[in-house]
């Protein structure tokens, strides 16, 4: 990935395919998420077949069915593209373009009847994310972006797509910050800095998974931070945040979707937040 930056013009400079290709990829991702929603929403709050993975986390038959469906669609439509998926691993890792699939982000929410879950699908080309969709059917909401065209959302009661823009809050003391969980961050390598940061901001809330990133992209919060992530967790939220004018890195300020850490901000506050985290 390129050096750090933020803002709409900077994000547009990361375009690595033609406008037509980007539009086609985004349309494909939207249609794939339509199909995924048709699986996850009927399964929500139903009897689920749940198993535990090797890492101790849970997986449902809906997770597996959605990833299988999306993989089949990618292989049929873009046979030369690679795939990085949460449930079934990586295919064609060296391909120029790769798709990141999280069939159900927030599986544990999904299992417990909490509506904050969604399918995340993004495409990367030449090392830069190019388009992505976050679809949360139980919330009736969807977010999407592609390089150079901004980030957008649809929501119940809306007149049509609404453009997302990160906030203009410029001081940490005015910031609202989000995180997956207190214990998650207390177990991180920036635990002491995180505790100091929580004490210095206007407001903090534990709102994890894709939801926190979408709130940053929508200007409702200034920071979302969590660890223990896969590229499939970060791909779609990453491009939505950047196209909304925000900035997303790991805890050291590096742009690396494979880094296992997510730190999304409104962009303006990113240097101050990194400084607070590291003392």
Provide structural commentary.
- Helices cover 35% and strands 26% of the residues.
- The chain is of the alpha+beta class and 279 residues long.
- It folds into 2 domains: 8-163, 2-Layer Sandwich (Fructose-1,6-Bisphosphatase, Chain A, domain 1); 172-278, D-Maltodextrin-Binding Protein, domain 2, CATH 3.40.190.80.
- The chain has an 8-stranded mixed β-sheet, sandwiched between helices. A 5-stranded mixed β-sheet has the order 12-11-13-15-14. A two-stranded antiparallel ribbon has the order 1-2.
- A hairpin with a 2-residue loop joins strand 6 and strand 7 (128-136).
- The longest helix has 25 residues, at 19-43.
List the helices and strands and how they pair.
Layout: H1 8-12, H2 19-43, E1 50-52, E2 58-60, H3 61-77, E3 82-85, E4 89-91, E5 97-105, H4 107-111, E6 118-125, E7 128-136, E8 141-146, E9 151-154, E10 162-163, E11 176-179, H5 182-186, H6 191-200, E12 203-206, H7 210-217, E13 223-227, H8 231-243, E14 247-249, E15 261-265, H9 270-278
Parallel strand pairs: 3-5, 11-12, 11-13
Antiparallel strand pairs: 1-2, 3-4, 5-6, 6-7, 7-8, 8-9, 9-10, 13-15, 14-15
Helix pairs in contact: 2-3, 6-9, 7-8
The level 1 CATH classification of the largest domain is Alpha Beta
Q: Give the termini separation.
A: 27 Å
Examine the secondary-structure arrangement and name the CATH architecture of the largest domain: 2-Layer Sandwich
Number of helices: 9
């Amino acid at each position: 990935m390129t050096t750090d930056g933020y803002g709409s013009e900077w994000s547009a400079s990361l375009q690595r395919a033609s406008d037509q290709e980007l539009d086609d990829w985004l349309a494909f991702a939207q249609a794939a998420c339509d199909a995924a929603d048709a699986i996850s929403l009927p399964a929500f709050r139903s009897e689920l077949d749940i198993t535990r993975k090797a890492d101790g986390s849970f997986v449902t038959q809906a997770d597996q069915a959605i990833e299988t469906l999306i993989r089949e669609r990618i292989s049929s439509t873009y046979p030369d593209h690679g795939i990085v998926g949460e449930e079934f691993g990586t295919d064609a890792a060296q391909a120029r373009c790769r798709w990141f699939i999280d069939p159900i982000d927030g599986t544990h929410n999904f299992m417990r009847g909490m509506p904050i879950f969604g399918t995340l699908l993004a495409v990367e080309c030449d090392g830069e994310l190019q388009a992505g969709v976050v679809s949360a059917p139980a919330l009736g909401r969807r977010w999407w972006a592609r390089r150079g065209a901004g980030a957008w959302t649809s929501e119940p009661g809306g007149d049509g797509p609404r453009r997302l823009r990160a906030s203009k809050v410029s001081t940490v003391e005015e910031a609202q910050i989000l995180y997956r969980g207190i214990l998650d961050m207390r177990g991180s390598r920036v635990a002491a800095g995180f505790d100091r940061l929580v004490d210095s901001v206007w407001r903090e809330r534990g709102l994890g998974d894709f939801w926190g990133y979408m709130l940053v992209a929508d200007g409702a919060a200034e920071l979302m931070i969590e660890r223990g992530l896969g590229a499939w967790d970060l791909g779609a939220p990453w491009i939505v945040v950047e196209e909304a004018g925000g900035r997303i890195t790991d805890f050291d300020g590096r742009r690396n979707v494979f880094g296992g850490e997510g730190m999304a901000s409104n962009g303006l506050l990113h240097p101050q937040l990194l400084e607070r985290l590291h003392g």
